Recover the amino acids of this structure.
């Protein structure tokens, strides 16, 4: 059986001036897996996500998504191709309700012109109802019914993270990029989030790339792990392989060189 | 007469003794408030979506007005000239997005602000080249805007309402309503609010910033056109009008840079306060209060409520 690669990163390098954030990194993400990207602070994990969804343009290297190698990527285009993401330090539409945040996630699927939408009639109304139904499903799934109408900016942090996940899910992405989805959460919130991530992966079949610092979470959730350190890839494999890897242990604990 | 009496008692006695004059003054205040609100609205639209304080909003008002008048001057019928002017404002929006905003994306706000300064002078120079430097008469009657006044005999006196002012208020209300519906119910409207809250989050859900910028600059251009017509009809269309950009500043400080209702309320408050101040307190200092009172109010608001009456409270973790 051939392996179904959803996204391939080949020899990607990213530099900011004289700082090399990512140095010749290659790895792939297979369809249907949960792929963790780990590494010490400043290893280039978030930069990697930013390259994948088009916030940064890599200086060198190739990225192939769904078999298509892309030249210049823009975030809006990545979103339309089916890449959704959440951010390390929550980026919600703070003035908008939970519901509107999720509805905005449907942007890429909206077709009708705004003339119809303004009239709130005809095909646009039917479309709006359909989108609303999808969004309600996600609200049910994430158990956030009670905060539907609350402006996102007023929610506690843990719920904001959940709404952000909801917005990404509303895009019905093929590839979901999660940047530290559990950062700053307490034990209970973390357990909830883990459950959601597993369910998203299993029920919806969404491929997930995940950055996380909590090693327990990474080892439990992910199928394969790629380890970055100072912008280089130092290990790649199953959680067990990576855990035993000497380079990884050194990177995390520090060694005298 | 002691000063306390002159400042705190006498003006109110005057108001009570001639209610018709008070109503007239209030009305004039509200009318100029509508125009201030329109200019401020143009600022708010752009500020919300791109975080840019668009200094060029004033010259956009002049530019729109002059384009309309000149197109009509070429013998194009007024309604068609109106549509064409709208088209010109659309082209301007596209050009500004391409040539000014896109190259400066992710630069500090002060750079974008300076760029709008540049834009202002560019439009002044270009405008003078194309339209000439003389002031022009707005084509009020050709656009079927009502003229004359309605005289109300109430409160034991005469209150005179200019029909043009009533029309201006009506048109402004309709426009604000349309904008509100657009923001609330359409995909692009929702995207606009999203962009106002967070650029990168908006990008991540597939909203194209470039498209949104064109839309807001066009919306601001349309608002500028309406402002230009209304203001032009009251006086004349000339480059001096661009000073109203500076008038919008206290309105924005009062209403908050990010709030559409704030822009409207702020405009009204400034308009009314100016007129009342000029009429009742002006004589105490020999008149001329109107030109600076708004800025004093703005300063006071800044001291006590820096985010404005309706603006977002900015809380930052440090």
């Amino acid at each position: 059986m051939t392996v179904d690669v959803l996204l391939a990163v080949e020899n990607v390098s990213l530099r900011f001036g004289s700082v090399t954030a990512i140095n010749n990194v290659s790895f792939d993400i297979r369809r249907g897996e949960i792929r963790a990207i780990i590494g010490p602070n400043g290893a280039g994990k978030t930069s990697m996500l930013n390259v994948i969804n088009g916030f940064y343009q890599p200086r060198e290297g190739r990225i192939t998504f769904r078999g298509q190698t892309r030249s210049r990527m823009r975030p809006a285009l990545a979103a339309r191709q089916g890449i959704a993401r959440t951010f390390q330090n929550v980026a919600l539409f703070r003035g908008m309700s939970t519901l509107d945040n999720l509805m905005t996630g449907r942007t890429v699927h909206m077709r009708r012109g705004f003339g119809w939408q303004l009239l709130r009639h005809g095909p646009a109304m039917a479309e709006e109802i359909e989108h609303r139904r999808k969004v309600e499903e996600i609200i049910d799934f994430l158990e956030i019914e009670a905060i539907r109408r609350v402006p996102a900016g007023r929610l506690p942090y843990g719920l904001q993270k959940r709404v952000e996940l909801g917005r990404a899910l509303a895009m019905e992405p093929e590839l979901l990029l999660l940047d530290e989805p559990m950062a700053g959460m307490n034990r209970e919130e973390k357990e909830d989030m883990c459950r959601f991530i597993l369910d998203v992966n299993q029920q919806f079949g969404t491929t997930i790339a995940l950055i996380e610092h909590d090693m327990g979470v990474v080892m439990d959730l992910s199928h394969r792990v790629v380890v970055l350190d100072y912008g280089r890839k130092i290990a790649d494999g199953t959680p067990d392989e990576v855990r035993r890897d000497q380079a990884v242990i050194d990177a995390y604990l520090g060694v005298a060189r | 007469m002691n000063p306390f009496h002159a400042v705190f008692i006498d003006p109110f006695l005057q108001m009570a003794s001639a209610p018709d004059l008070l109503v007239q003054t209030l009305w004039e205040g509200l009318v100029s408030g509508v125009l201030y609100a329109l200019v401020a609205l143009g600022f708010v639209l752009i500020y919300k979506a791109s975080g840019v304080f668009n200094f060029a909003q004033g010259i956009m008002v002049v530019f729109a007005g002059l384009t309309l008048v000149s197109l009509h001057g070429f013998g194009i019928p007024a309604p068609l000239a109106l549509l064409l002017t709208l088209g010109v404002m659309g082209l301007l929006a596209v050009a500004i997005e391409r040539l000014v905003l896109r190259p400066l994306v992710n630069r500090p706000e002060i750079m974008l602000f300076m760029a709008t300064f540049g834009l202002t002078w560019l439009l002044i120079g270009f405008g003078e080249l194309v339209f000439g430097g003389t002031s022009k008469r707005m084509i009020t009657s050709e656009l079927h805007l009502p003229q004359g006044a309605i005289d109300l005999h109430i409160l034991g006196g005469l209150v005179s309402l200019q029909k043009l002012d009533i029309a201006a208020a009506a048109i402004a209300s309709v426009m604000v309503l349309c904008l509100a519906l657009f923001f609330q119910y359409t995909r692009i409207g929702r995207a606009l609010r999203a962009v106002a809250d967070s650029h990168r989050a908006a990008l991540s859900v597939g909203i194209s910033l470039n498209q949104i910028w064109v839309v807001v600059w066009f919306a601001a251009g349309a608002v500028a056109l309406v402002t230009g017509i209304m203001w032009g009809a009251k006086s004349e269309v000339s480059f001096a009008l661009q000073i109203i950009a500076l008038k919008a500043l206290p309105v924005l400080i009062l209403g908050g840079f990010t709030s559409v209702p704030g822009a409207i309320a702020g405009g009204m408050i400034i308009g009314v306060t100016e007129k009342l101040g000029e009429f009742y307190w002006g004589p105490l200092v020999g008149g001329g209060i109107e030109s600076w009172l708004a800025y004093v109010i703005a300063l006071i608001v800044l001291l006590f409520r820096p985010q404005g009456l309706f603006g977002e409270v900015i809380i930052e973790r440090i």
Notes: The CA atoms of residues 11 and 74 of chain B lie 51 Å apart. The beta strands of chain B are 149-152, 159-162. DSSP finds twelve helices and two strands in chain B.
